[in-house]
């Protein structure tokens, strides 16, 4: 309960943020370069915040890719070095249940083909892959093993430059669509002027709306400050369980329902 309330509070903060982002666009606020300014806080408009319902993942199976082992859940993240970017994705399906055989992470390559926008994807970076398994107490048949998680560090990038890329395994071939990203500008001369901060997104009927609002404001950088799927609020059979009030003292393991992670972006 405490956690649920906390996540509601986080959601409210998230709305405050989104509303202020919208204002930035509509009100033509000056950029931070013209600052410093006093922070502006927009009060929550409770009439646009209703009850938030988690997406029941068991009734909504994720869409399978057209080609087996085509990348899903592709994500980009900043590296410690501004000239490099991490590209991560998943291939294959997670498995949950009794007597499951994990996928072989070496069976699908981790390759990013990339180049400066509109000048061809002639560069190649390779990375690594792994799986993880979650073993539950023996009487619980719902052991879990993930799809293959791929991670590639793309290095040697120029600052403030648009790149295009595809990721996947070119030998299958099972490559993603072409996607794009812009690298961060190099300090101290310049820095990202529009930064979105979002947290406690959850996997709800409203999550896509929140992300669309954020994307519609074209942030240069999005900081995801945590609490995404709330998988730890679920029992291994996928039902919402109130673990947080310690009413399962005899449970040897903190249960979680990993498929809530696997439904992201699918
Ligand atoms: C709150 O949201 C509702 C619905 O969008 C809108 O009609 C109302 O004007 C808003 N109130 C304020 C104070 O912005
Ligand atoms: C779950 O995994 C554990 C550890 O590998 C194994 O001992 C157990 O038999 C598995 N349970 C099921 C139901 O597959
Ligand atoms: C959240 O999602 C529900 C279910 O789709 C919808 O009825 C509601 O209007 C949404 N809330 C907001 C604030 O968009
Ligand atoms: C799911 O598991 C929890 C914890 O073991 C149990 O209390 C609940 O009844 C189960 N729900 C279903 C639908 O099996
Ligand atoms: C804790 O969980 C139990 C069992 O679900 C429930 O009866 C009780 O009301 C909960 N306590 C609090 C403080 O939420």
From TrEMBL:
Residues 71-183 form the Purple acid phosphatase N-terminal domain. Keywords: Signal. One of its GO terms (molecular function) is acid phosphatase activity. InterPro entries: Metallo-depent_PP-like, PAPs-like, PAPs_N, Purple_acid_Pase-like_N. Residues 1-27 form the signal peptide. PANTHER family: ACID PHOSPHATASE RELATED, PURPLE ACID PHOSPHATASE 13. This is Purple acid phosphatase N-terminal domain-containing protein. It comes from Gossypium lobatum.
């Amino acid at each position: 309960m405490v956690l649920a309330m906390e996540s509601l509070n986080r959601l409210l903060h998230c709305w405050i943020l989104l509303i202020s982002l919208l204002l930035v666009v509509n009100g033509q606020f000056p950029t931070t370069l013209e600052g410093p300014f006093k922070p502006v806080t927009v009060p929550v408009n409770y009439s646009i915040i209703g009850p938030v319902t988690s997406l029941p993942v068991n009734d909504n199976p994720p869409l399978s890719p057209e080609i087996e082992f085509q990348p899903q859940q592709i994500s980009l993240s900043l590296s410690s070095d501004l000239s490099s970017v991490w590209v991560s994705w998943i291939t294959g399906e997670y498995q949950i249940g009794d007597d499951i055989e994990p996928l072989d992470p070496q069976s699908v390559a981790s390759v990013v083909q990339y180049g400066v926008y509109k000048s061809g994807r002639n560069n190649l970076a390779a990375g690594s892959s792994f799986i993880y398994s979650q073993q539950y107490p023996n009487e619980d048949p719902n052991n879990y093993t993930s799809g293959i998680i791929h991670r590639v560090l793309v290095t040697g990038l120029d600052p403030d430059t648009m790149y295009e890329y595809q990721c996947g395994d070119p030998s299958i071939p099972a490559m993603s669509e072409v996607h794009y990203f812009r690298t961060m500008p190099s300090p101290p001369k310049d820095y990202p002027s529009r930064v979105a901060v979002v947290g406690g997104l959850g996997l709800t009927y409203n999550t896509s709306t929140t992300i669309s609002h954020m994307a519609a404001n074209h942030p240069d950088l999005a900081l995801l400050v945590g609490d995404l799927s709330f998988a730890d609020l679920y029992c291994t059979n996928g039902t919402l369980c109130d673990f947080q009030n310690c009413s399962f003292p005899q449970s040897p393991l903190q249960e979680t329902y990993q498929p809530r992670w696997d439904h992201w972006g699918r």
